[in-house]
Amino acid sequence: MLSEHKIYHALSEQHQMLGCDRELFMLNLLVAAALIFTALNTFVTIGALILGSLTFMLLRRMGKKDLQMRHVYLRQLHYRPYYRAQAPLLTPPRKRYLK
Question: Could you tell me if residue 19 is inside a domain?
Fold first, then answer.
C-alpha cells in the first residue's frame, strides 16, 4: 500500500497579490510611489496613477493567462544563444519522405 503524505498548502500556492505576480506588483507600486513622491506635482501624480493603473491591469491579465510567464520569458532570454529560432543559412534542406 502507498503511504499518504501531507502536502502543506504554503508549498503549493501561487505567489500572487490581487491576481498579479507578487514581485511585479510590488515593483509597480514602488515605481508609482517614487514618481509621485519625488516630483510632488499634480500632473506627475495623475500620470503616475494612470501609468500604475494601466500596468496593474496588464499584470492582472498576465496573471490570469499564465502566472509563470515572467519566469518562462527570462529563461528563454537566458538560453537564447544556445537555441536559435531559425536554422543557419548554409544548413542543407531536410529530407522529405513520400507518404
Answer: yes
**How far, in Å, CA of 68 to CA of 52, rounded?**
21
What would the pLDDT profile of 9-63 be if each residue is shown by its tens digit?
A: 777 677 888 888 899 999 999 999 999 999 999 999 999 999 999 999 999 999 8
The pTM of the full predicted model, rounded to 2 decimals, is 0.68
Domain that holds residue 19: 15-78
Q: Is 91 helix (H, G, I), strand (E, B) or coil?
A: coil
How many domains is the chain built from?
1
Task: Judge contact between 38 and 59, C-beta under 8 A.
Answer: no
